Amino acid sequence: MEFDEMKKIWDSQSNQTLYSIDENALHNRILSKKKRAQHITNISEFLGIIVYIGSSCFVAAVNFSGQHGNIFIYLLAGWMFITGGCLLVSRTLRRKGDSRFDRSMAGDLSHAISVATYQVRLSRFMRWNVLPIGIFVLLGIWHSGKSIWIAAGTLIFFVLANYAAGWEHNVYKRRKRELEILQSKLEIET
Question: Is the pTM of this model over 0.90?
Answer without folding.
Answer: no
